Amino acid sequence: MDYKPMISSIEFRGNDKTKDYIIEREIQHQINTVLDSSLAEEDRNRLDNLGLFSEVKWQAVPLENGTAVLQYSIIESIQKTPPAAFPTYDEKTGWSITGGWIIQNFRGRNQHLSIGGSIGAEDSYGLYFSDPWMFGNHVSLDLELGRTFFEHLFLDRSVASSGFELELGRWFGEHVKTMIGTGLEQKKFSNPLDTLSFSYIAPQWSIAYDTRDIFWNPGQGFHFLHFFYWKLDRTNEEKSALIWRQSYSTFISLGSNPKKLVLAMNITAHRRWGGKHDVWLKYFGGSYSVRGWPLPDRGSYSPSRQSFRFGHEYVHASLELRKDIIPKFAT
């Protein structure tokens, strides 16, 4: 017979740094009600989705008076790293020395702050700050600024880019999230013959429907996204463009083993209206699109070789069978 006591209080253990209210605002189970194990599990998933904890568990602890305490036990992730630099490899650019300072749970308030840069194949520096509850009730703020320089992946050009981006987001209910933002960006694509310059304002808007149980490792649910991005060039209207990206994903659990076995499917489409210069070409290949092809280079870009992999608009689909091999411990 299921144990369904009256819950007289809710406690949290293990959150040495994270403020109690950060956890409390994710808990929907009420006190002075009968234990609802489904709701307690959903609360556990919401805490896991904060990205602050390596492990979250819940249990009902019986009391002498016949009621119980709903107790959430938490192991906090590594949330602050000392400033350091390491060799890193990026499949788009190659090897660089990358350094920075990352605070994952700034002030114990689920804020993220990072400052960093790199030298080598990619020369860059930047600052990023985010708070998923900056203005109350799931109204988020994301702010990013930086500069980067690298050799273009498949064109005979170097790329210098600098920009600033500000985004505000809000959840509506449990499953609908919207975002509105804007940015300023300057890009130069150069070679010994000429330089292509772009300077634009970039308003953007997105809406997502998300029923995934765990964002970083879903076992079930859907994720549908529509993202609109305008590039309004301040110097030449013909360079301006509107981009629409849509993505549809579903995750189906196969079995009840603690090490998840999940069937994952996705279809993504990308449309572009307006300026279509070669420097904005998309491609298939690498770990973020069609993985059967390697990343492109200047040889594969040649029209006589693999021109079908390049363009301004595309549709691609994926089918994956995912299996947990190593369980998540301290991260």
TrEMBL record:
A single Gene Ontology CC term: outer membrane
Q: Where is the Bacterial surface antigen (D15) domain?
A: 105-325
- Database matches in Pfam families: Omp85, POTRA
| InterPro entries xrefs | Bac_surfAg_D15 (IPR000184), BamA/TamA_POTRA (IPR010827)
POTRA domain: which residues?
Answer: 6-74
Any idea which UniProt keywords this protein has? Membrane
Compartments it resides in: Membrane
Does Transmembrane helix show up as a keyword for this record?
no
For this UniProt entry, what is the primary localization, expressed as one broad class? membrane
Give the protein name, as stated in the record. POTRA domain-containing protein
Question: In which organism is this protein found?
Answer: marine metagenome
